[in-house]
Design a protein that fits this description.
By secondary structure, this protein is mainly β. The protein has one domain: Acetoacetate decarboxylase-like (Beta Barrel). It has three helices and 15 strands. The protein has helices at about 35-40, 100-110, 245-260; strands at about 5-10, 20-35, 55-70, 75-85, 90-100, 115-125, 145-155, 160-170, 180-190, 200-210, 215-220, 225, 235, 260-275, 280. The strands form two sheets. A seven-stranded mixed barrel has the order 2-3-4-5-9-10-14. The radius of gyration is 18 Å and the shape is globular.
Length: about 280
């Protein structure tokens, strides 16, 4: 089929010491999902109010490849559990952040208050020339035209690996049109983690070319089975009777977010993202 497999893992030296704001350049897929409020609420601090309607909130994923950053070249998958009120606007809440850079992981945990974890991003590219002509498109994650990508994300913990998901990236439009240039601000809450117990708020200032694309398909090799949701939501893997640890429960709830129904996907090209230093939120 003309496929090649590569494993992306970065250990670039840190450039975070220059201080904020921190600048990232690359490309990304920003995908919104309808997430069950019960799943999202398990991540949200009690002092924050979840934005929900008819039992759902807006979550999803932010999948990025950075060609230039304080940590060098690396990949990132941000799992967005939901949206919380921050009058007069609202802010996103990330339930899990996966990066293939130790420096980016440490910075995310200590400075931004993110639930960051080191991961391996294994990419498999299938050339569109091997597909019927009506299926030939261009993938956002690669600079080469006429390619399609499958990405497997494996979370690292000590010497073990846990499969998080497989992401089948969409075929975008066949021409070179990248959409209009926009500037947006994506405010987010973070913190209340083991590495940063304070409630924080930070902002990402983004400049990019944006266009709507077909949603990526997210799957997981190992099937997980979710119990009926209660005030404390629990997740159990199939054929495992023992109750999962808190960490495993949080991981599986994040996977449930990724597997939820996508409603819109945006491709960010020529991405320039400036991350401001977080501020402590009074509670």
């Amino acid at each position: 089929m003309g496929e090649s497999a590569t494993t992306s893992y970065s250990s670039s030296p840190s450039g975070y010491g220059i201080g904020p704001p921190w600048l990232f350049r690359g490309r990304a897929l920003y995908q919104l999902h309808l997430v069950k409020a019960e799943i999202a609420r398990a991540f949200i601090p009690k002092e924050l109010k979840l934005v929900e309607a008819f039992g759902y909130t807006l979550g999803g994923l932010f999948l990025a490849h950075y060609d230039d950053s304080p940590a060098g070249v690396f990949d990132e998958l941000v799992v967005i559990a939901g949206i919380v009120w921050n009058p007069p606007t609202s802010c996103a809440w990330a339930s899990r952040v996966l990066v293939n850079s130790h420096e980016a992981c440490r910075h995310g945990r200590k400075e931004i208050g993110l639930p960051s974890h080191v991961a391996i991003f294994s990419k498999r590219d299938a050339k569109a020339s091997d597909q019927p002509l009506y299926k030939q498109r261009t993938s956002f994650i690669h600079s080469k035209p006429k390619e399609h990508s499958e990405i497997q994300v494996l979370e690292m913990e000590d010497y073990s690996q846990t499969s998080i998901c497989n992401i089948s990236l969409p075929f975008a439009a066949g021409d070179c049109w990248m959409g209009p240039k926009i500037r947006i601000s994506l405010p987010s809450f973070s913190g209340q983690t083991t590495h940063n117990p304070q409630l924080l708020k930070y902002s990402c200032q983004i400049e990019c070319r944006v266009r709507a694309v077909k949603s990526a398909k997210v799957s997981r090799p190992r099937i997980i089975q979710l119990d009926e949701f209660s005030n404390d939501i629990r997740a159990k893997e199939k054929n495992v009777d023992d109750r999962l640890s808190t960490e495993n429960e949080e991981r599986d709830r994040s996977i449930a977010v990724l597997l939820s129904k996508p409603i819109m996907a945006l491709e960010f090209n020529l991405l320039k993202m400036q991350v401001e230093a977080p501020t402590v939120v009074a509670t």
